[in-house]
Write the structure tokens for this entry.
Amino acid sequence: MNTFTNGNGAINYLINELEAQTKKIKEEIKQIDEMLSKEPDSFHSRLEKIEYKTKMFDLISKKKALAFNLSVITTHFNKKNLFNLNL
């Protein structure tokens, strides 16, 4: 279980969604890496590699967006817990 969850359904859902998207991105990056490691033998193959590199860039951008969303969730969670402290 994630340390950021405390029974809040919306936060739990977002965290689970981020984890699923991150896993999908990692799998796609692995597939792209495997494709890029192959030797190009024709113009078509080189064109495919350029397309894969473009897709890799898009995936990295998505990963940055996921990291930002997770930081927003973390900040929200920390602020919520800060106000709930009984001092």
